[in-house]
Amino acid sequence: MLNFDSWSLSMSIIAFLVSGSIIGVAGVLLTIRAERIARITGLGELLTGAILIAAINSLAGLITTVTAAYNGHASLAISNSLGGIAAQTVFLVLADMVYRKANLEHAAASESNLLQGVVLIVLMALLVLAMAKPEIEVFKMHPVSFLIVAAYVAGLYLIHQAREQPMWRPRMTKETILDTEGTAQVSRQGILFLCLSFGTLALLVGVAGWVLAHAAISITLHAGLSETVVGGIFTAITNSLPELVVAITAVRRGALALAVGDILGGNAFDILFVSAADAAYRNGSIYAVITMTEIFWVALTILLVGILLLGLLRREKHGIANIGFESFLVLVFYITGIFVLLEN
C-alpha cells in the first residue's frame, strides 16, 4: 500500500499530473470503443454518451470523491463533484469552438438533450433542499441522497422514452444532425476484445482517480490551499478531462449527439457523487458540513446549465468566435466564478 502521508509536495504534484494524464489519454481510447459499442448494440449515440461514456469517464471523479469523503475531507469531496459539473458544462463551449459548420446548440438540439438538462437541474435542486436541512439523517445519511439516486434512474427512463417516442422534434435545417441509429456486425472474438479493453481502461481510470484523490489531499496539506479550491478547480478539471476529450473527439467525428449527451449525461451522473460521498463520510451526513462555497458551486452550475438549455431552445446558427451567445455567457460566468472562488 502506498504511503501518501510521507509524500512531499513535489511528489504529490507529479502524482497528480501523471494521474491526470492517464485519465485524459484513457478518455480518447474509451471514446473510440464507446462508438463501436453504440454501433454493435444499436444503443445510439445519445444514450451511449448519457450512460456508458458518462459513467466510465466519471469513474475517476467518483473514486476521488469517495476517497476524499472516507478520509474526512468533505469539502474536497463535494467541491470535486460540483466543480466537475461546472467545468464539463464549459467543455461544451470548447467543443462548440471546434465545430465550424454551426453552433453546437443549433446542430445537436433534440428533445432528449433538453430533457437531460432539465433532469440535471432537478437533481441539483434536490441538493439545495438537502443543504437547507442538513440535520435530517437516516442511517447517518440524508434522505435526499437516496432520492437523488431514484430521481436519476427515473430521469434515464424518461430520456429513453423521449428517444424511442419523441413528442416533438427540432425544426430540421441543413446544419441539424440527429442521433445516429443502426448496428454493426462484429465477430465474437472482436466483441470479447472490445469488452476486455474497455474494462481494462475503466480499471486504469479508476486507479488513477484513487491516486489523484490522495495526491490532492497531500497538496492541500503541503501547499496550504483550501480543499474547496483544490477540489472545485484542480481535481474537478483533471477528472473531467475525459469528457473534454470525448466531446472534442466526437465533434470532430461528426457525432454531435454523443458530445452533448456525454457532457449532460456525465453531469447528471456526477450528482450521484454527492450521494456516494454522503455514504462514505463517517461523521454523519456530509450535508452537515457543507459551506457557502459548495452552495455557490450549485447555484453557478444551475445558472450554466440553464443558459445552455436556452441555447438549445434558441438554436442560434452562428455567433461570437464561432460559438453562440449562450455559450459565450457560459464561459464568462464560469471564469467569473473561478475568480470569485480564488478571492475567497
Number of helical segments with 4 or more residues? 13
**CATH topology tier name:** A middle domain of Talin 1
How confident is the prediction overall: mean pLDDT? Answer: 79
Domain count, please report it.
1
* Strand segment tally: 0
> In CATH, what is the class?
Mainly Alpha
Query: Stretches where pLDDT falls below 50 for ≥5 residues?
Result: 181-185
CATH 4th-level superfamily: NCX, central ion-binding region
Q: How helical, in percent, are the residues?
A: over 70%
Residues in β-strands, percent: under 5%
Cα(first) to Cα(last) distance is 36 Å
- Architecture, according to CATH? Up-down Bundle
Q: Can you tell me the overall shape?
A: globular
- The gyration radius over C-alpha positions equals 19 Å
Largest sheet: none
List SSEs in N-to-C order. HHHHHHHHHHHHH
Structural class by secondary-structure content: mainly alpha
Task: Name a few traits of the molecule.
13 helices; globular; A middle domain of Talin 1; 344 residues; mainly alpha
